[in-house]
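step: validate -> pass
step: tokenize input -> pass
step: predict -> running
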Amino acid sequence: MRRTARKAPLGPEEYLGLRMAIASSFIGFTVAGVLVLNHFEVADAAFCSVGDWLSCNTVNRSDYSVILGVPVALIGMLGFLAVTALSTARMVAPRRGLGLRAPPLLTAAVGAGLSFGAYLSLVEVFVLRVVCLLCVLSLVAFAAAGVALRRTLVVPWPRKAPRGKEGLPAEGR
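step: predict -> pass
step: emit ->
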């Protein structure tokens, strides 16, 4: 009796991207956790203060560090937790439940994290006139997750067209 090979639910590139997104989210979650502790003055981010223009304490304790009474860093932690949970669900059960719904949800989570982080970075530079290195690192972690998830997101990045024997795009694909 001959067995037919079953097609893997996800390609190796997508699995790698999901694992890299989880790693980026772990880093971002940790950084956001330090920022939450700093916001509540449990931990000092003096290591992040260099002169008048580089200070996590100034940014993280400003009026812009809270939205509706919730610290922005805590919102970031929840965003990184969402990316981790959705990426894990996608790897474990890509054809059912949350794993099946993960691509649009991951797109929303990464898009929101990048948009929110970019907005807050603009506030840092143009309103507060000071930069928070940990906040920038958090934005970079969301960007790294987005790049890693390029095979999973609903609007994937353009891929190279398959080529025929003559090096021209293959017909009918």
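step: describe -> Residues 97-128 form the longest helix (32 residues).
step: cleanup -> pass
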